[in-house]
UniProtKB/TrEMBL annotation:
Domain Reverse transcriptase: start-end pairs: 347-506
Coiled-coil regions listed in the entry: none
Gene name as annotated: Acey_s0018.g3720
Source organism of this protein record: Ancylostoma ceylanicum
SUPFAM superfamilies named in the record: DNA/RNA polymerases (SSF56672)
Protein name, entry field: Uncharacterized protein
Lineage: Eukaryota, Metazoa, Ecdysozoa, Nematoda, Chromadorea
């Protein structure tokens, strides 16, 4: 009886909605529906937040807050559910200068910079897919034509994988064996797209959220705000336009770092670099096509932009301040398409080989844990971490080049120099570092000290430069010393040895200054791990920095399901592998579960499955020779259907 009554009431509601939609205008009706959805979302969100707090309190009392990795990924029960942050993450969006941003716009930005709205198969999407098909056909023809040639007749580009397009497009000659198969493939792709266009694409944003996205775009286009990401947290940062200008102008007033320049000086610099490149590359016997492909005749001027270090803002007064001196920034000079972009890439492919010969250099957390486990830890040893203050802007270019020169001379027989001599490489390196002009707001400036974050050579040069700074410390032979770019981890037998190492590193260069961190509650964070040493026993667990807003690709984002699953699975795998014991593993997996939940991923209760043995992946030659077909993501069904053709 109750079911019949509910069914009758639902039919009445549906009938009334249809009448309202018929008599009211389409725009007014959509506005009413959007407002209703927004109200319901807020009600559900408040209720769920209240229930989550109750659950957290009960979990804390019972001590059962440890969670296992999820067996599968499920969306939250409400498709428009908005994930609220946990207590240890204050906000997933930072608004500066007291700017008033609508709450609904905040909820959209909280989805994260990696969130992708779903898109139907529009005319623009079809054009992009058609272009991708033409690119695929050209690559297939090129591959077949190259395979038919003898090894000595193959072009130099086939032996050196260059990630930059050619200056001029040369259509490959037709090949019947390729063109017939390609035409069949293209026909199937268009059939799949035609079937998909007949279906209604479900949006992953509500109507109200779409309106909020438009409003944010209007604020950006009318120069009211600047939307960027933070220096470390990874969240969106909303900065009023006038405050953004004031912060940048104040940063550029540092005469020890920058000086005014001009477009004519920029033109002189890049022309000199191109002349040096052509001269040295020809002397080294590089193929003319490679020389031309790595030279940019008309480069764009690099552009400066600043990332706000939101983790340095301690209070709400700092957030609402309009004083530019309140904000610490990380300067980035985008060199994409600039004079040193391609030549710097080529030099970096050579110089990056030197990092294998730097004993303290770390590439990932796994390498750090391996070195930690192999260390003979004493009972009364001391551990600390050192951090270099503003490494890139304080690197001495002359010292970095000297370190590069010494390492090239020492290891030139063990690395691929692509026909260049050490003096030729040093000439090109000096020419690249001399191209130091960038633009901001139509004005030109030159960086007169340090390396530009955004230049391809900067990380490699900074790592090699630090190898000279840390050399005296390695001679002291601490129990363990290792470094990831500017973060150093050190274990010494006594506190006196630790103090001596810190003073040695701080005295190597007038611009290089280090800060030191000691264990807090017996735990010391380094990279994404925490280390505890008690009575000569070392324990480790997973770590997330307080400044990290724990933003992953959201579950509702229009990304392939396998990609989202891989992101979450890798996070849980990392959280488990970093840990040294059962208790640490439980704590780390519970933290990973909370991070996943904040991004829309929930745990599914299912029967335990037998764990499969993980074998190392090996890519065979046939897989390596395959050519990727890149197209815009529409849905998993479309990708699967095209992949099975």
């Amino acid at each position: 009886m109750k079911q019949d009554q509910m069914y009758a009431m639902m039919k009445k509601c549906i009938s009334k909605e249809k009448h309202c939609a018929y008599h009211l205008g389409d725009r007014l009706w959509k506005s009413i529906v959007g407002g209703s959805i927004s109200i319901c979302d807020r009600i559900r969100s408040n209720i769920k937040r209240t229930l989550q707090r109750k659950f957290d309190r009960l979990s804390t009392r019972s001590g059962s807050d440890a969670a296992q990795p999820p067996n599968a990924m499920n969306p939250c029960n409400n498709s428009d559910h908005e994930i609220k942050t946990a207590e240890y993450v204050p906000s997933r969006v930072t608004v500066l200068g007291g700017f008033s941003l609508p709450k609904n716009a905040l909820s959209v930005l909280e989805l994260g910079p990696n969130f992708s709205p779903s898109q139907p198969i529009s005319t623009m999407v079809l054009c992009n897919i058609t272009c991708a098909l033409h690119v695929l056909q050209d690559k297939l023809r090129n591959k077949v034509n190259i395979d038919c040639l003898h090894e000595s007749q193959r072009p130099a580009e086939s032996r050196l994988t260059i990630p930059f397009p050619s200056a001029f497009f040369k259509q490959q000659t037709a090949n019947p064996s390729v063109d017939v198969s390609f035409r069949l493939f293209a026909d199937e792709v268009y059939k799949i797209l035609a079937r998909q266009r007949q279906r209604k694409t479900r949006s992953n944003l509500s109507f109200a959220q779409k309106q909020d996205v438009k409003e944010v775009r209007e604020l950006i286009e009318t120069a009211q705000i600047r939307l960027s990401t933070s220096g470390k947290g990874g969240e969106f940062v909303v900065t009023p336009h006038q405050l953004d200008i004031a912060i940048t102008e104040r940063h550029l007033q540092d005469a020890s770092l920058y000086r005014p320049s001009s477009s004519s000086e920029f033109q002189t610099q890049y022309r000199k670099l191109n002349r040096e490149w052509v001269k040295e590359a020809k002397s080294a016997g590089l193929h003319p096509t490679v020389i031309a492909r790595l030279k940019i005749e008309l480069p764009v001027c690099p552009v400066l932009y600043l990332l706000i270090k939101t983790h340095k803002l301690k209070s709400s007064n700092d957030l609402n301040s309009n004083d530019p001196s309140t904000f610490k920034v990380r300067p980035i000079i985008s060199c994409e398409g600039g004079p040193t972009d391609r030549i710097g890439w080529f030099l970096n492919t050579i110089l990056v080989q030197l990092l294998n010969y730097i004993p303290a250099h770390l590439t990932n957390t796994r390498m750090f844990l391996d070195r930690l486990q192999s260390t003979n830890i004493t009972e009364n040893c001391v551990m600390e971490s050192f951090d270099v203050t503003a490494l890139y802007t304080n690197v001495s270019n002359d010292s970095a080049m000297e370190a590069i020169f010494e390492m090239l001379n020492e290891h030139r027989g063990n690395i691929n120099l692509y026909g260049f001599s050490v003096p030729q490489l040093m000439t090109l390196l000096k020419a690249c570092l001399s191209c130091n002009i960038f633009s901001w707001s139509g004005k030109h400036f030159a960086q007169i000290r340090g390396l530009a974050m955004g230049q391809r050579l900067a990380p490699t040069l900074a790592i090699v430069f630090m190898s000279r700074i840390e050399a005296p410390v390695l001679q002291c032979r601490p129990l363990l010393y290792c470094r990831y770019i500017d973060d150093c981890f050190i274990i010494c037998a006594t506190q006196a040895e630790m103090d001596n190492c810190f003073e040695l590193m701080n005295g190597q260069n007038e611009h290089i200054k280090l800060t030191r961190d000691t264990p807090l509650d017996d735990w010391l964070p380094f990279l994404n791990a925490q280390i505890n040493i008690t009575n000569g026993i070392c324990r480790t667990k997973w770590y997330r920095k307080p400044s990290n807003k724990n933003i992953l690709v959201h579950f509702r984002s229009a990304h392939p399901t396998h990609a989202k699953k891989a992101i979450v699975t890798n996070m849980f795998r990392t959280a488990a592998r970093v840990c040294s014991g059962i208790e640490e593993k439980k704590e780390s997996l519970a933290l990973a579960q909370r991070v996943a939940a904040m991004n829309g991923y929930v745990q599914q209760t299912s029967r335990p499955r037998k764990r499969k043995e993980v074998l190392p992946r090996s890519r065979d030659s046939t897989h390596a020779e395959k050519i990727a077909f890149c197209l815009p993501f529409i849905s998993d069904e479309v990708s699967t259907a095209i992949g099975s053709v």
